Amino acid sequence: MKRIGIIGGMGPLATIDIYEKIVKLTNANKDQDNIPIVIDNYPQIPDRTAYILDNKENPYPYLKESALRLKQAGCEAICMACNTAHFFAKKLVDETGINLVHIAKNAVDSIKVEFPNAKKIAVIATTGTTKAKIYEDNLISAGYECVKISNENMQNIMDCIYKGVKANKTTEYVKLFNDTIDCIQADVYIAACTEIPLLLPYCKKKDLFVDATLDLAKTMVKFSLGK
């Protein structure tokens, strides 16, 4: 088995979510069957959306520091438990030489398999991910139409992420999340923020969601096991 790494802490619950998914997907019969994973849980990484939208503190030096720690620890593939952080993906790969599994490219590949007839895709993400077109560029290249989300619905999504999941108040924001998704008409929705999967168990349209974190976990497991 190959050792894999997770740049985590963005936020901690999202990091737990992808780690738990990797463990469950491995289907181990004993401890020794599990994949060797190094998690660099680094919640001090500055907010990615705040940098993209408002030019606040740059998170890139922190991401690079984390990536190099994981590389030094012998991780042969690395993922980031944060969609918005993929704004820095190319630079991170170019400057560190890590093998980074890109969450957005991976999710688009999953849509082709899971929803072969889908045409209109709604990216449920932070405003930072949306502005940076982390998913949009990959979706358009694959021939999909990206559904435009209103400013009001974007703010609702941000509230569900920051005031809900990140603040450990997930269940208090379930109604707002469901009401918001009902207002967005699409063939498929991408849970394109690593906090969103924590709302999906309560979502009325969860069967129409591609959980980008889950699909990333599947790819990491396949890589480690050599499948």
UniProtKB/TrEMBL annotation:
Pfam families: Asp_Glu_race. GO terms for molecular function: aspartate racemase activity. Its EC number is 5.1.1.13. Keywords: Isomerase. It is an enzyme of class 5 (isomerase). Transmembrane segments: none annotated. Belongs to the aspartate/glutamate racemases family. PANTHER family: ASPARTATE-GLUTAMATE RACEMASE FAMILY (PTHR21198:SF7), GLUTAMATE RACEMASE (PTHR21198). This is Aspartate racemase. It comes from Campylobacter sputorum subsp. sputorum.
